Amino acid sequence: MESNRREIEVMANLLSSNDIQAEVNRAHFRKNNCLAINVLGSPGAGKTSLLEKTLPLLIVDMHVGVIEGDIFTSKDADRIAAHEVPVIQINTGGGCHLDSKMVSKVLPEFNWQATDLMIIENVGNLVCPADFDLGEAFKVIVLSIVEGDDKPAKYPVIFRNAKAVVLNKMDLEALTDVNMENMKQDILAINPDIQIFEVSCRNGNGLQAWISWLSQEVTTYQENNG
Amino acid sequence: MHEMSLMGGVFEVIEQTISQHEVKRVLQVKLKVGELTNAEPDALQMVFEAFCKDTICEGAELIVERVPVRGRCRTCQLEFTVPTMFFLCPNCQNTSIEVIQGEELLLESLEVE
């Protein structure tokens, strides 16, 4: 029997359904004049701690909403809700990252007349979330210095695609062998435009610079969005 | 392991493609995966086999071509391969580099009968 073996050219993006929904989410944020950011980092880096320290100062001047991504629990959302900030938990049920469809499903839960900044805290993971656009304006990485100064070079994709990195747990610097200069040099070699903040969520050092920068980003976004 | 989600994307594309062609069996699936993504070829192979079971793709071969990162210097326009993920123009030492290749996550082609 004659074989009908043949090749079909396709050239299709594997993430197209995620990317299309991400653009819909991005248009939603833009229409509501809301800066959306995607916060990424390893488990235990201090993503939720950073939000807990940041939110009380931010909500003096603006309305903030939070989407918490977690595999199973609502522990992080409970911590955020204690600060009287609207928060919605997404449980991925084993999934290692948020995707744009999960985010779109919870958007109707917020009051969009009064949200200047939407902070999306992703599942703790330096690998998988990097490939999934949620519709955010930009990504922020939280990296604790105790994870080691080699981490930026080992996980370059996520650093290449972020606008800022918050280096947390600076209060532990003297107790570790971390070389801060190497760490920052590697981060800038991967992404020379990235903003670097050195903070300690435990003692509060460095947080003001990060909070001022983020507030300014909200103002700039809203002015440009006009 | 987000390769599961990516493979969901692969199979969405396969289903859409074969609905437009007369296909009895898929024999080979070719992907192009940029080095500036976090898709891991071994993990893709593993989930591919799981996804293929009891489908038109059962027994198909998955070929994953890794695409190296290439950049273009925004100052001198030189195009070069970025081997270490450190973005520095070898000609003028500028660090403002536009990525022109290496972010692909594509289904390139299917071999079918």
Characterization of this structure:
The complex is a heterodimer of chains A (about 230) and B (about 110). Chain A has helices at about 15-30, 45-60, 75-80, 100-105, 150-155, 155-160, 180-190, 205-225, and strands at about 5-15, 35-40, 65-70, 85-90, 115-120, 140-145, 165-170, 195-200. Chain A has about 230 residues and is α/β, with parallel strands linked by helices. Chain A has a single domain (about 15-225), classed as Rossmann fold (3-Layer(aba) Sandwich). In chain A, helix 1 (about 15-30) packs parallel to helix 4. Chain A is globular, with a radius of gyration of 19 Å. Chain B is about 25% helix and about 30% strand. Chain B has about 110 residues and is α+β, with helices and mostly antiparallel strands. Chain B has a single domain (about 5-110), classed as hypothetical protein PF0899 fold, CATH 3.30.2320.80. The interface between A and B is large, with 38 and 34 residues. Strand 1 of chain A pairs antiparallel with strand 6 of chain B, so a sheet runs across the interface.
